[in-house]
Amino acid sequence: MKTSKRMRALAGLTVALTAVTAMAPAPAASGKGASGLRMTWSSYHSLADIDAFLEQTAAAHPTTARESVVSTSAEGRPIKAITLGDAPGREQEIVLVCGQHAREWIAPAACTYLVNELVVNRARYPQLKDLTVTVVPVANPDGYEYSRTFDRRWRKNRRSGSSTRCQGVDLNRNWGYKWGGEGTSPDPCTENYRGPHAFSEPETRGLRDYFLSRTRKPAAVVDIHSYGQYILVPYGYDRQGHMYSDYQDLLSVGRQMSQAIYQYKGKTFRAGNAANVIYPAAGSLIDWAKGTLGSKYDFGLELRDDGRYGFNLPAGQIIDASTELAVAVRTLGTAVSGLPTAHSAD
Ligand SMILES: [Zn+2]
């Protein structure tokens, strides 16, 4: 990691802010996290807080929660995962990847909320009872910290480039399935720079290797973003509507998730093909999960809101946005539970 006077000063400021966050009272609605942790979901937290939360959750629930390091970022930060379930490796698995885009702060917040729910309030999620759920809360830790300390609107990772503006690769354009197509740029100075080649970045490479190293491929891969309130179904690399045999299964489950979210607080999440519902984007995680990994249920979720606050979703909405994610994952759990078990598939 680079050190400079400015960064050291900012690091000090971050520590100070973290201390303030730690002292802030938890809202009555959410209470504290597992074992009295300082994660409150009443504010957005630093990477250090999130990493500590994962560590402490795993330590407090050794039989059901297991922490691991998926990869190391461009600037040397660990990318952590937490796996929840009674028998990882034998059960069907749902994997959630959160925060590929740095400025979408609600993604890591909602994903850590879900982790806490699944350890503290597991009984509320009978649909996930016989499943393993793995969560990668911050897939782009360098970008997330940069967004928190230097530039709130930062999107990419922190690969070094020729100038400040030209740093970083859009991680969700760097995956290897149909890499380099529509909705991506070869120009390092753009927001959707796809990188010099597929999997050029340690973040995507590490996640890819993690997926491929699993005992069995996950039944579902969900990529969490904001904003827009969409449930996106692959393929998103162009608008040609490329079909696959179970496309209707995905669309149907996507619509069920949308209905479940609507029943919570009346928010509309539009479900449909990624390229048609928003815009074409080649080299995305969900396209790779479907086209290369061969996982069945692959979705991109664009969480709150519909544009009023955009990336700057007020912290007061973290719990509602997180609950909408939890409701969607619960619905997905019903679909995944209906698949053949690990044993019968062997
Ligand atoms: Zn995004």
Automatic annotation (TrEMBL):
Q: Which residue ranges does the record assign to the Peptidase M14 domain?
A: 43-336
The record lists the lineage as:
Bacteria, Bacillati, Actinomycetota, Actinomycetes, Kitasatosporales
Q: Which residues form the signal peptide?
A: 1-28
Q: What is this protein called?
A: Peptidase M14 domain-containing protein
Q: Which residues form the active site?
A: 302 (proton donor/acceptor)
Instruction: Tell me if DNA-binding is a UniProt keyword of this record.
Output: no
**UniProt subcellular location:** Secreted
| Keyword entries, A-Z | Carboxypeptidase, Disulfide bond, Hydrolase, Metal-binding, Metalloprotease, Protease, Secreted, Signal, Zinc
The record's annotation in InterPro entries points to: Peptidase_M14
The alphabetized list of GO BP terms reads: proteolysis
Whether Hydrolase counts among this entry's keywords is yes
The protein's required cofactor(s) are namely: Zn(2+)
Q: Give the PANTHER family listed for this entry.
A: FI01817P-RELATED (PTHR11705:SF91), PROTEASE FAMILY M14 CARBOXYPEPTIDASE A,B (PTHR11705)
